[in-house]
């Protein structure tokens, strides 16, 4: 063990190589949240999955990921961030191989849940490694700009990759593709990353894990069941009430245990809380749009998977321009809410543009406009929220602060997918009930469902923008702002 600044990874010449391998691990996580989306029609037919169960291929991953992220962050803090990163990579690889070999719905769902569980270890360890590696203001701004572009664009890249793999190989390669990426990241990470961990003996809050996981599962399951049972049914309301009680109990436990899963001091800061909230609300729209646009292009417009993937390229471009060209330059100069709030409002406009879609709407006047608005908005949100997710945090809490960011992202995705899919399906069923049947009517019914869900998504994002405008009160970053990196006295474990 050493405690010298000269050995800290932030000042070594290998930090940019470290960013590459850490970023590769993060790209895997983001890709897996969407790469399967575009393959859903194919794998659903292949494995005989029902329409009611297909959403669990997505939410099984994001829910396991989101509910276990806080535990993953604490494990990374106390057992070593490099070690947690490497274990997460290898476990993620094994789960991806299992999913690619799946022969039925249950096997695929189990693999997706395992992917989420290991992703919960990989995600916070990756972001906390980035936090302790880049501590100088200028380098930190660049690193977080790159990281934000990866996080924001990775979902759309996943849709493109999913289309190519499904068309030219098989949907199973949407999972197998993780194997070479993980091996490269693991080998490179082992070679260039320096170990760091929080001093002291680890005590893991198992009660907190069970309460938060149970609460989140209950809420997401209730949302998914509302379409068939009804929002006012005893099943849906009972599950929602149980979820709320479990989450309230989780908050109570966290305020009393010696080493909580989520120290309340992490979310007590208004700026950090605003960063988490902005991401959680923004991804509701983003991931809903990914799902709706995929089915709209393939089912309504008759696009092939690869053509669908190519159709998402403008969104990738918009994210890269916004995150890398605009947000990164303005991040050190402006208060965070002056970037996040406009980004959320632009994303809101993207969701509202979905209302213009019809069965005969052209790509340029419909999906393209929505993509550009959503992509540009996301690019303004992600780098800023990533940077301020660890705003003023002690390095010993960097793992759990990073996990809180990823938790907001994954839980927002889980709840958003379940909620918006339920709203869309209900609206589609209502349209069919009043307009009859037939292929043309079925396609129009699907579009009506997407439009109804988009209105809800836009409303949620707009409300979030208003909350962030009031809540997030950090001023313009100063020369010595803690958000841009202050030296920590925490000992770092470095290679001999």
UniProtKB/TrEMBL annotation:
The keyword Magnesium does not apply. The keyword S-adenosyl-L-methionine does not apply. The chain crosses the membrane at residues 16-40, 55-72, 84-102, 114-132, 144-163, 175-194, 206-224, 236-253, 274-297, 309-327, 339-357, 363-386, 450-472. GO terms for cellular component: plasma membrane. Keywords: Cell membrane, Membrane, Transmembrane, Transmembrane helix, Transport. InterPro entries: EmrB-like, MFS, MFS_dom, MFS_trans_sf. One of its GO terms (molecular function) is transmembrane transporter activity. It is a multi-pass membrane protein. It comes from the Bacteria. Residues 18-476 form the Major facilitator superfamily (MFS) profile domain. Pfam families: MFS_1. This is Drug resistance transporter, EmrB/QacA subfamily. It comes from Micromonospora eburnea. The lineage of its organism: Bacteria, Bacillati, Actinomycetota, Actinomycetes, Micromonosporales.
């Amino acid at each position: 063990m050493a405690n010298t600044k000269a050995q800290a990874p932030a000042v070594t010449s290998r930090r940019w190589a470290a960013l590459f391998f850490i970023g590769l691990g993060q790209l895997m996580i983001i890709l897996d949240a969407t790469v399967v989306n575009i393959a859903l029609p194919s794998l659903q037919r292949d494995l005989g999955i029902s329409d009611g169960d297909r959403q669990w291929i997505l939410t099984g991953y994001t829910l396991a990921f989101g509910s276990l992220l806080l535990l993953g962050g604490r494990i990374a803090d106390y057992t070593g961030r490099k070690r947690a990163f490497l274990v997460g990579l290898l476990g993620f690889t094994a789960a991806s191989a299992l999913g690619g070999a799946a022969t039925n719905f249950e096997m695929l769902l189990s693999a997706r849940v395992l992917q989420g569980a290991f992703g919960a270890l990989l995600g916070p360890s990756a972001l906390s490694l980035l936090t302790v590696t880049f501590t100088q203001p200028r380098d930190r701004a660049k690193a977080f700009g790159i990281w934000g572009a990866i996080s924001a664009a990775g979902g759309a890249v996943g849709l493109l990759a999913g289309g190519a793999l499904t068309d030219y190989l098989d949907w199973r390669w949407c999972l197998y593709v993780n194997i070479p990426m993980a091996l490269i990241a693991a080998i490179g990470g082992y070679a260039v990353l320096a170990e760091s961990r929080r001093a002291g003996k680890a005590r893991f809050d198992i009660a907190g894990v069970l309460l938060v996981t149970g609460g989140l599962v209950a809420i997401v399951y209730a949302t998914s069941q509302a379409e068939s049972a009804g929002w006012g049914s005893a099943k849906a309301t009972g599950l929602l009430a149980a979820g709320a009680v479990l989450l309230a109990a989780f908050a109570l436990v966290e305020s009393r245990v010696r080493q909580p899963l989520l120290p309340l001091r992490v979310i007590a800061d208004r700026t950090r809380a605003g960063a988490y909230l902005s991401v959680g609300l923004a991804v509701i729209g983003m991931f809903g749009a990914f799902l709706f646009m995929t089915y709209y292009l393939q089912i309504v417009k008759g696009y092939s998977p690869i053509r669908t993937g190519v159709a998402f390229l403008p969104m990738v471009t918009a994210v890269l321009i916004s995150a890398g060209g605009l947000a990164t330059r303005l991040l050190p100069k402006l208060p965070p809410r002056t970037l996040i709030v406009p980004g959320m409002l632009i994303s809101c406009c993207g969701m509202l543009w979905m209302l213009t879609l019809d069965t005969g709407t052209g790509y340029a006047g419909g999906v393209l406009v929505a993509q550009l608005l959503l992509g540009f908005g996301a690019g303004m949100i992600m780098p800023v929220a990533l940077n301020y997710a660890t705003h003023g945090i002690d390095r010993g809490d960097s793992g759990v602060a990073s996990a809180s960011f990823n938790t907001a992202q994954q839980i927002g995705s889980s709840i958003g997918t379940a909620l918006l899919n339920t709203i869309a399906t209900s609206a589609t069923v209502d349209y069919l009930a009043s307009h009859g049947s037939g292929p043309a009517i079925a396609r129009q019914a699907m579009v009506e469902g997407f439009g109804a869900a988009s209105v809800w998504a836009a409303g949620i994002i707009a409300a979030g923008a208003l909350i962030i405008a009031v809540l997030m009160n950090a001023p313009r970053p100063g020369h010595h702002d803690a958000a841009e990196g202050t030296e920590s006295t925490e000992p770092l474990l470095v290679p001999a």
